[in-house]
Amino acid sequence: MTSTQIAHTVDLHLGDRYIGKYSTEGHFSNLYIAGTQPPQLLYRVVRTKIQNACEMSLSTTREWNHLKHAHLATFSQIIYDYPSPTFVQLLYRNGNIVDFCVKRHSLASLPIMLGQAAQGLEYLHSKGITHGRLHASNILVDDGYQARLADFGLYPIIEPLNGDPFIWWKAPEQLVPTDGTEVLQSFSADIYSFGLTIIEAYTFKRPFTHIRSAFQFLIQLKGDLGLATTIHKPARIPGSLWMIFRACCDPRPERRLPLGNLIALLHRAKSHVGTGGANPSFQRTIRNISKR
């Protein structure tokens, strides 16, 4: 990547509110856009203190070239001979699902796009890959208005320099181990993060905005592992999506909504986007799944 290729530097920063702004510094990577005309390429240069990050990235990503799915944003190239791990992918000019909804002043597409992202996640899980950092900024929208899940599997080489901005989306067992065993990543933790991503997508804010600091968040989570279920229902989230969120964010990993059921329920939820609550049939379906 030469300096003549770089049009400008961008980064997505997660603050108290969702912010999709241009910045030269982010939590764990710098993004460079190469070229001025589409199709443009995005170079993600990971900033990390891990000494063998390039070797780790090679081990982590060697199978990614075989991943093919309509709702994944796969890397077209991975550069290993650069001082820091560098990943190359197409630039999605519509941004992520929050960017897309803000620009269109509409939430109507969210159930469909969330369902597409869930399909991408299901494919990853079928290949034995956990996403590890699932939130709205990692669900991109392509030129055909299809959702594509991005930045999967990068957690082994990412060490944020200023704390972990992803802490708000992490499952309780990742932050407050109850049996003495720390859970780094798991399929059920991805489901929990997906549930909080639903809240983020409809509010344009990170989860738990009423808690100002990560320290206070951890204290409250230790006192109540079901902290996510205490979130008040946002006015603009449909009842069906609200029920899906709660089923994803059960504090007990084994009780969380299975991914196949999540996809089916998001498909059904499309018919409820204009209503204030889910119909009784939808409610019964979720209750029956939760009892299994």
UniProtKB/TrEMBL annotation:
Gene3D superfamilies in UniProt? Transferase(Phosphotransferase) domain 1 (1.10.510.10)
Q: Name one GO molecular function term.
A: ATP binding
Q: One Pfam family of this protein, by short name? A: PK_Tyr_Ser-Thr
InterPro entries annotated for this entry?
Kinase-like_dom_sf, Prot_kinase_dom, Ser-Thr/Tyr_kinase_cat_dom, Ser/Thr_Kinases-Pseudokinases
Query: Highest taxon of the source?
Result: Eukaryota
Residues covered by the Protein kinase domain: 17-270
Return the protein name: Protein kinase domain-containing protein
Q: What is the lineage of its organism?
A: Eukaryota, Fungi, Dikarya, Basidiomycota, Agaricomycotina
